[in-house]
From TrEMBL:
Keywords: Bacterial flagellum, Cell projection, Cilium, Flagellum. InterPro entries: Flag_bb_rod_N, Flagellar_FlgE/F/G, Flg_bb/hook_C_dom, FlgE/F/G-like, LlgE_F_G-like_D1. Its main location: other. Residues 223-267 form the Flagellar basal-body/hook protein C-terminal domain. It is found in: Bacterial flagellum basal body. This is Flagellar hook protein FlgE. The lineage of its organism: Bacteria, Pseudomonadati, Pseudomonadota, Alphaproteobacteria, Sphingomonadales. It holds the Pfam family Flg_bb_rod. A flexible structure which links the flagellar filament to the drive apparatus in the basal body.
């Protein structure tokens, strides 16, 4: 019994080490959220067992939870680098038509005037009128016209704290082209990480609730800034030492059980 109990402990310690290593590896990844391995005790007993003698048989990995606390904000100066000051997520439409959510607000303009991330996923926004007010709750790709109605060429773009994207043109005019839509979830820990600091919604997270930047829990936008990883290297190194000691202790328990078994087998009648 002690072999399997300690073997479970080794596997759990290995899972903890893997999670910490993943956190450390992404300490410089924009929009990354650190994970934490949580364990649960395993006990074995029946309805007829004496509750005072029920024996524990180890532990198991109960969950690897994500910590969605706000990471440090780094100023970059690029208008399409955006950080969220609240709980919101940027919404993107993937190449396959799927919906992705991210906190990494590093966007650029592609050759057709769309606002995309480094993988080509398109930022989603609300359509707006000439005053920058949303005209619909439907989400759509942001599209910046190459020229305005007067024929003037595109000159630049700005994003306000209210999420309104305004394109400027060579004739000095500024035209709103959309308002960044932010999503929140009832249980963000239920989001499924899919890589590149992106998540997908699941039944555990619940459906996304969409809103405007600067409104309630969604948070305002900081243009010219990016949210860094919320990994604390010092904290992770302490956790790494703890997980290593846990692994060593379980390995020692297996070694001790082996010695006891060997002693029993060597008994002579």
């Amino acid at each position: 019994m002690s072999f399997y109990t300690s073997l479970n402990g080794l596997k759990n310690a290995q899972s903890s080490l893997g999670t910490i290593a993943h956190n450390i590896a992404n300490s410089e990844t924009y929009g990354f959220k650190r994970g934490r391995t949580e364990f649960a005790e395993i006990v074995a007993g029946s309805a007829l067992s004496n509750p005072r003698t029920i024996q524990g048989i180890g532990s198991s990995v109960e969950a690897i939870t994500q910590n969605f606390s706000l990471g440090p904000i780094e100023q970059t100066g690029s208008a399409l680098d955006m950080a969220i000051t609240g709980d919101g997520f940027f919404t993107m439409r993937g190449e396959n038509g799927g919906t992705l959510y991210t906190r990494a607000g590093s966007f650029t303009i592609n050759e057709s005037g769309g606002i995309v991330d480094n993988d080509g996923n398109r930022l989603q926004a609300y359509a707006v009128d000439a005053n920058g007010e949303p005209t619909s709750n439907a989400l759509q790709d942001v599209q910046i016209p190459v020229t305005n109605a007067a024929g003037a060429e595109y000159a630049g773009v700005t994003v306000g704290s209210d999420g309104v994207i305004r394109a400027s043109y060579a004739d000095g005019s500024n035209e709103p082209v959309g308002m960044v839509a932010l999503a929140t979830f009832m249980a963000p820990n239920g989001l499924k990480p899919v890589g590149s600091s992106n998540w997908e919604s699941t039944g555990f997270s619940g459906a996304a609730s969409y809103g405007e930047p600067g409104n309630g829990q969604y948070g305002a936008l900081l243009s010219g800034s990016l949210e860094r990883s919320n990994v604390d290297i010092a904290e992770e190194l302490v956790g790494l030492i703890t997980a290593q000691r846990n692994f060593q202790a379980n390995a020692k328990a297996i070694d001790t059980a082996t010695q006891i078994s060997q002693t029993v087998m060597n008994l002579r009648t």
